[in-house]
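Think of the structure tokens as a kind of shorthand, similar to the way a musician reads notation: each symbol stands for something richer, in this case the local conformation of the backbone. In the example below we present two proteins back to back. Begin with the first one, reading the sequence and then the tokens, and try to describe in your own words what changes along the chain.
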Amino acid sequence: MFHSINDVLADAHLRAASNLFAPSVVLKCRGRALFRSQKARNLACYFDLIPDVLAWSCLPFLLGSTETFHIPDFAVQRVDGDYLVDVHDTPEWALAAAEDEGWLYDCASYQHDNNAVLIANAVDLLPYARTSTVSLSDRVRLLTVLDDDGPLPLKHCFQLIRNSSEPMAAIAALYFSGEIVFDLTERIAPETRVSRT
């Protein structure tokens, strides 16, 4: 059926390119953002949010041959090295093939069940990443209160954003700029504590 490994990879890319999964924003992706499932898209949101991931790419290459092959969901560049990641279980032979080619699989760090809340928060925050802005007066007001009073619940931070029709967008802009932080290990809610970095 396929004549070369490049044909197999091109076919996988073509099939993944026909999928449209929200959100559409990507931050650290190198190359085309191609996802085989919503679960893979959601995991990519998490990659974009966590600081130890420097870059990631989708469906990077083929392991095996045209008869028996596996295409990893992601190649992830982290501060501690480069890894392959699959959303679903990776075949044992593919783990060995990757190692033969100088790659390591990280089969533990990004399991959905262990990171469900972090992934859900990443999916919620990422749409604000490139489009959100915060006015200078809102920025100074919120940062001053956080400096003077310490961490505040998210619902109180909303009250300090006066020049935006979407307070969460302004707060997310400050989060993505690294000026504020909040705990993403619990679902973002009105009581989520917001603090200065």
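Once you have a description of the first chain, move to the second and do the same.
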Amino acid sequence: MGRRRERTGTLSHKSKSCSIRRPLSKETHECFTPNPVIPRAEYNGTQRKILLNGQQCTPLHVGCRMSDRFRKDGEGTCPACGSHFPYMMIHNGFNDSAFAYCDSCGGAALLDVYGAPKGISLTFGPIPEEIETRLAACPCGGHFRSAATPRCPSCHAPLDAKAVASFIEANAPGAKKGWKWQRSWNGIYCVVVAKPPVENPWLTTWA
């Protein structure tokens, strides 16, 4: 009897190319939905089940969804002081999250879109301004704001969304295929600088 051939190939899933990595069994295959800013080898965890060629598959996790881990996606340079810092990119659509930055240190907060308190609606991007008062303070003492930006961890200067395109696109594997940084802090991506994000910092009570 001849050897069983492994199935290989790609297909389109929600406009993202999804590749079969290896067979897990005769019935199921492991696949992942590529994020253009994260090298394939650095994916970890799991996110959600999808159907691939009629079979249920688990795409590898693209985002963060943890407050005690930090994945280095590249090294940035502060335009103001020239210091270097590691950063992590989060695609909030894949990660099912909304985000905010601290107005003091520039640290990031990630909020589970589907786990928000009753009556609060979140989308995959910056938080609405009206829920800022429902979030606890940042560990540094600042406040998470919808309009705040990441900051340099050395001089604390706000990072310009257009200026950071130079190192984000240089470090992003997908840039070779035409991917471009959004050049705004209001898009679906957020950038976590130097330290892990704070996860779901909801106040238990509010006025």
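Compare your description with these statements about the second chain. Residues 74-199 form one domain.
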